[in-house]
Amino acid sequence: MPVSDMKAMVLDRCAPIETRPLKLRTLANPEIKNRNDLFIEIEACGVCRSNLHMIEGDWKDRGSPSVLPVVPGHEVVGVVKKAGAGARRIKQGDRVGIQPLFSSCLKCGYCKSGKEHLCDDAEITGESVQGGYAEFIVASEDFVTPIPDSIDSPHAAPLFCPGITAYKAVKASEPAKGRSVGIFGVGGVGHLAVQLAKMEGSRVVAISRAKKHLDLAKKLGADNAVAYQDSPDQFVKQLKKEEGLLDSAIVFAPSENAIDAAIKSVKKGGLVVVGVVGNIPNFSAFDEKTVRGTVIGSRQDMADLVKVASESSLKVVIETHRLAEANEVLARLKNSEVEARAVLVP
After folding, report:
1. CA–CA gap between residue 75 and residue 162 (Å, rounded)
2. Pairing of the two strands 203-208 and 224-227
3. What angle in degrees, to the nearest 10, is found between the helix axes of 162-172 and 299-311?
């Protein structure tokens, strides 16, 4: 007989991570309610900085979390233990991943045009519905992505948030051979963006405050790595000296100064992709620069990324921890002590 309950890390109220707000609880297993639902045993769940922002209450004004108590976690990989009677694409025993896009209406203009991640009625894994800091989860087969045997679960999990975020942002930066792209922030997302941009033939310049992140970027193929200075103007001066102005830039560092520096670091007519929450402090229309936002990706984007990962040498740098260690892992992430991506393994 299958177990009827599970362990999960639960957030009852938003609070600083140092106060250990996530509590290890025993909860009833989630149940299949719809014909195409899947009951999934979780094998790995990545730990995202946006989890930290939600847990500490930084995003209350954005309605996140929209339910409490909540089980965080939105980059989930597991094995299907039971499939609803209406499931056709996914079967028992399949290994699948769940990204932040848990579901959408499938009826609006965004959904019908393949941009369901922009749906106004989208549900977000681990924010508006229960997430992956747990042993089991139920999800619709319409919104899961099969994972090939060539990628193990701990390395697959980060594909479902930092991976799709990096993939979408790199595509938005219009990469091409002979074009340079600066990647501001080389952590869980940035270390994947460095590699994906190199696959497109771009000259990649990694930008970070931390030497260990700059060293990681070089190890993963960055053509140059420039230390970020506190002053955007000071940084751009150093960039011009070492590299020259860039054709495009992608911002993953959650800082208005980083966004400002990125805009100043690209040539006139250049392109800046912003993949974080943050305001644009300075912008001059007369330089004809373009600032473009990007967020996660569609179901097709997710499938395309998994295919790229399975057929390439894309290296997902991880460290693994037990589910009960989630508070400590998030505290290390807050203090920039995680090299790239931390993954919880129940």
Report:
1. 8
2. parallel
3. 100
- How remote is the C-alpha of 105 from its chain's centroid? 22
Cβ(174)–Cβ(252) below 8 Å: no
Which domain, by its residues, includes 96?
5-159+316-345
Helix segments in the chain, DSSP class H: 49-56, 109-112, 153-156, 162-172, 190-199, 211-219, 232-242, 256-265, 299-311, 326-334
Amino acid type, 320: T
Within-domain flag for 329: yes
Pairing of strands 246-251, 266-274: parallel
CB atoms within 10 A of CB 240: 12
Per-residue model confidence as pLDDT tens digits over 299-320 = 999 999 999 999 999 999 999 9
> How does residue 116 score in pLDDT terms, banded at 50, 70 and 90?
very high
Omega prior to 158 cis, within 30 of 0: no
Helix (H, G, I), strand (E, B) or coil at 217: helix
**Cα end-to-end distance, the chain, whole Å:** 20
What integer pLDDT is reported at residue 63 of this predicted model? 82
Token look-up 């719809």 returns 34
Q: What is the pTM of this model?
A: 0.93
- Residues 288 and 326 grouped into a single domain: no
| pLDDT at residue 3 in the model | 64
Residue 197 is assigned to a structural domain of this protein: yes
Spatial separation of the C-alpha atoms in residues 225 and 182, rounded to whole Å: 9
DSSP 158-205: GGGTHHHHHHHHHHHT---TT-EEEEE--STTHHHHHHHHHHTT-EEE
